[in-house]
Automatic annotation (TrEMBL):
Cell wall biogenesis/degradation listed as a keyword: no
Keyword NAD (UniProt): no
Organism, scientific name: Aminobacter ciceronei
Record-given protein name: Zn-dependent protease
UniProt keyword annotations, A-Z: Hydrolase, Metal-binding, Metalloprotease, Protease, Signal, Zinc
Coiled-coil parts of chain: none
Pfam families recorded: Peptidase_M48
Signal sequence, start to end: 1-37
Taxonomic lineage from the root: Bacteria, Pseudomonadati, Pseudomonadota, Alphaproteobacteria, Hyphomicrobiales
GO BP: any one term: proteolysis
Length: 466
């Protein structure tokens, strides 16, 4: 009995292991939705978000997703990567900064839109369930052979049972990876369709895959194509190049205005995420307005604020209606401890922002917070709430709102804003604590009281056990 019990425990452990293996294969697409609020390093920037939305808008329309509330999230990660989770499309800052043309990023967005439009995540969950079942059945079959071998003292039969467990796990894993590779090919082809429908070139997609192929070659790694979830870069290029070249738009270039915005985005990301040296290297490859913008950003972050202000004023003179030049002016003045002057700059930025970002009104509200007078604090509440109406999930905005209410002596609304800040950060237990505190001070049935009750009643998604 002791040997049979030991074998049974071994099989149980094996079953749990293959189950975890089947589940873990879906992490890239299956669990990132909750990670958005709990630990993924998100980047918020009005200028970059507006540009990426402009890239995505025609693609999403071509994919039939224009009214699907697709939210594009920027991730502070230097790797060239993008992925989808639910109705969110995540794009790394590394991809935005590395891509030399807008068309490269547009190709990435088209590919990810193909995953969403194709319902690949839902089907992946079904495939995960099948893979998990395959692995468990294999483990149970192996268990029977191992137990029978132990009972009959047939060592060969016991070894065969162990082989069935291991082989079933591997078969389930390869089946799942093969399915994912098929979906990647489908998304690639869908991307070509969307690019053609919007009159754009697929050259950017091909360049991205060529970059991956070059990186793989330089690494010297020998990769088993059956052990990865994506087709090999060379294979993807071969599959797509004929289709891409058949398009009448293959040689079409991005407009000069769009390329300029793209270049300004790249130098901005470099300045904020990789430091002065990286910014200087990137600036050597740019000229004109983008170079001057990058220089002003770098001077603001690492140099003399008076010089940064002078450079920014020159930018504003060249493009008076550029909201983000006025935003930079406000940033410099806030850092110089001149909130009143910064408020004027941010007011101009909000007025000129055609994308109607919620970030800029929240920045304007911060200037009024810094002034600290009763009238300024009331203006802070108005502007921050305006920003949150446009950008409801901006967790930091609620923290500034709570600060403004607290300084005005409105404790109930300060507690409720704090609760919302924790809620949108994914700290649900802290959110419930502050919501209960707020509810004790709010009028029962009032909008604030109802919102507090919603937070108290919220049930966070349970984490799947592996």
């Amino acid at each position: 009995m002791q040997s049979i019990t030991s074998l049974s425990r071994f099989v149980a452990r094996s079953t749990r292991a293959v189950t975890a293996l089947a589940l873990s294969a879906g992490l890239a697409l299956g669990t990132m939705g909750t990670a958005h609020a709990q630990g993924v390093p998100i980047v918020r920037d009005a200028e970059i978000e507006a540009l990426v939305r402009d890239y995505a808008r025609p693609i999403l329309k071509a994919a039939g997703l224009a009214n699907s509330n697709i939210n594009i999230v920027l991730v502070n990660d230097p790797a060239f990567n993008a992925f989808v989770a639910g109705r969110r499309m995540f794009i790394n800052t590394g991809a935005l900064m590395t891509a030399e043309t807008p068309n490269e990023i547009i190709g990435v967005i088209a590919h990810e839109a193909g995953h969403i439009a194709g319902g690949h995540q839902e089907r992946l969950r079904d495939q995960l369930a099948r893979a998990q079942t395959m692995a468990i059945v294999a483990a149970l079959l192996g268990a029977g052979a191992m137990v029978a071998g132990a009972a009959s003292d047939a060592k060969g039969l016991g070894a065969a049972g162990a082989g069935v467990v291991a082989g079933g796990s591997e078969m389930a894993r390869r089946s799942l990876l093969g399915y994912q590779r098929t979906e990647e090919v489908t998304a690639d082809r869908s991307a070509i369709t969307y690019l053609n429908a919007t009159g754009q070139s697929a050259q950017g997609m091909l360049k991205t895959f060529q970059r991956f192929q070059n990186a793989l070659s330089l690494s010297g790694a020998r990769v088993d194509p059956y052990q990865v979830s994506h087709p090999m870069p060379r294979e993807r290029i071969a599959n797509l190049e004929t289709l891409a070249r058949e398009s009448p738009y293959f040689d079409k270039k991005d407009s000069e205005a769009l390329q300029q915005r793209h270049d300004m985005m790249r130098v901005k990301i470099a300045a904020y995420t990789q430091g002065q040296a990286a910014t200087s290297r990137l600036l050597r490859g740019t000229d004109g307005l983008a170079s001057r913008y990058g220089d002003a950003q770098s001077t603001y972050l690492f140099g003399d604020l008076r010089s940064a202000l002078s450079k920014t004023d020159a930018l504003i003179k060249s493009q008076p209606k550029n909201a983000y030049f006025h935003e930079l002016r406000g940033d410099i003045l806030m850092k110089s401890n001149k909130p009143a002057a910064a408020a004027e700059a941010y007011t101009n930025a909000v007025r000129l922002d055609t994308a109607k970002s919620g970030i800029l009104p929240i920045q304007l509200g911060q200037t009024y917070l810094a002034m600290g007078t009763p009238d300024a604090l009331k203006k802070a509440v108005v502007e921050i709430r305006k920003g949150l109406d446009r950008d409801r999930e901006n967790a930091s905005g609620y923290r500034y709102l709570a600060q403004a209410y607290g300084m005005l002596g409105d404790v109930a609304d300060a507690d409720l804003a704090t609760a919302d800040g924790h809620y949108y950060s994914g700290a649900y237990q802290d959110a419930k604590i502050f919501a209960m505190r707020a509810q004790q001070k709010l009028k029962p049935g009032s909008p604030g009281w109802v919102r507090a009750q919603d937070i108290i009643n919220y049930k966070a998604p349970s984490k799947k056990k592996k």
